[in-house]
């Protein structure tokens, strides 16, 4: 997890470089730090959250954690097996991904202590070698699970929408365009991403029609 004082320090540097970002921070305020503990459980949690709503992901995770005896570990998932994971809300593909990762972690092939010492690109290459883990999942793990300071998840839809708003674009930019637009925020792109999620949520709140 990126500490809050570090997050805000990075954003202070970036807002002095970028007038658009500075204006957005004035509108939305500074975000709170967000993070998860590094390790197997967090990686599985991110897989659970793939392509589902925040509420749905939270509900599935809560059921899975309870079924696993309060701790999601390689052994507890392997003990549940395919039938147990499916019974607790996991889709067929996600069940297979989770069990594959559990087998790799239980057998020592996927070693989270080794990953903790590896550079970003090595972590990304190691994780994306497993089925079910693409660039987005690896980036989210690097950013929230490991607290790496310069991760830029250009495949995230909310990030793309936030950049569209920030730059007043007519359409949501493609990942390669986001890569270019985010380049000036190096080496603090993790902080920029955390702010953009916050900014996107803020802009959606203020543009939502009032409740009757």
Poorly predicted ranges: none
What is the radius of gyration? 18 Å
Query: What's the number of helices?
Result: 12
The CATH topology of the largest domain is what? Endonuclease III, domain 1
What sort of overall outline do the alpha carbons produce when their principal axes are compared?
globular
Largest sheet: none
Structural class: mainly alpha
What is the distance, rounded to the nearest whole angstrom, between the alpha carbons of the first and last residues? 39 Å
The CATH architecture classification of the largest domain is: Orthogonal Bundle
* Mean of residue pLDDT values: 94
Please supply descriptive tags for the structure shown above.
single chain; 212 residues; mainly alpha; Endonuclease Iii, domain 2; Endonuclease III, domain 1; 12 helices; 66% helix; 0% strand; globular
Overview of the structural elements:
- The protein has 12 helices and no strands.
- With 212 residues, the chain is an all-alpha fold.
- The protein folds into 2 domains: 87 residues, Orthogonal Bundle (Endonuclease Iii, domain 2), CATH 1.10.1670; 106 residues, Endonuclease III, domain 1 (Orthogonal Bundle).
- Helix 1 crosses helix 2, helix 3 packs antiparallel against helix 6 and helix 10 packs across helix 12.
Provide the fold topology:
Elements: H1 4-17, H2 19-28, H3 40-49, H4 54-67, H5 74-87, H6 92-106, H7 112-116, H8 120-128, H9 135-145, H10 157-167, H11 175-182, H12 189-207
Helix pairs in contact: 1-2, 1-12, 2-12, 3-6, 3-9, 5-6, 8-9, 10-12
């Amino acid at each position: 997890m990126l500490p809050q004082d570090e997050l805000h320090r990075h954003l202070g540097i970036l807002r002095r470089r970028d007038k658009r970002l500075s204006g957005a921070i004035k509108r939305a305020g500074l975000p709170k730090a967000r993070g998860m503990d590094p390790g197997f459980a967090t990686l599985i949690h991110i897989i659970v959250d793939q392509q589902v709503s925040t509420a749905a992901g939270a509900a599935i995770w809560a059921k899975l954690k309870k079924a696993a005896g309060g701790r999601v570990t390689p052994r507890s998932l392997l003990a549940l097996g395919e039938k147990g994971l499916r019974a607790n809300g996991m889709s067929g593909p996600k069940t297979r991904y989770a069990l594959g990762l559990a087998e790799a972690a239980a057998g020592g092939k996927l070693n989270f202590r080794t990953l903790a010492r590896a550079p970003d690109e090595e972590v990304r290459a190691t994780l994306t070698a497993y089925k079910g883990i693409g660039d987005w999942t690896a980036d989210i793990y690097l950013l929230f699970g490991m607290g790496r300071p310069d991760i830029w998840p250009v495949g995230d839809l909310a990030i793309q929408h936030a950049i569209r708003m920030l730059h007043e674009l007519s359409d949501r930019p493609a990942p390669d365009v986001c890569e270019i637009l985010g380049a000036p925020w190096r080496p603090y792109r993790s902080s920029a991403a955390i702010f953009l999620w916050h900014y996107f949520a803020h802009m959606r709140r203020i543009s939502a029609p009032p409740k009757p």
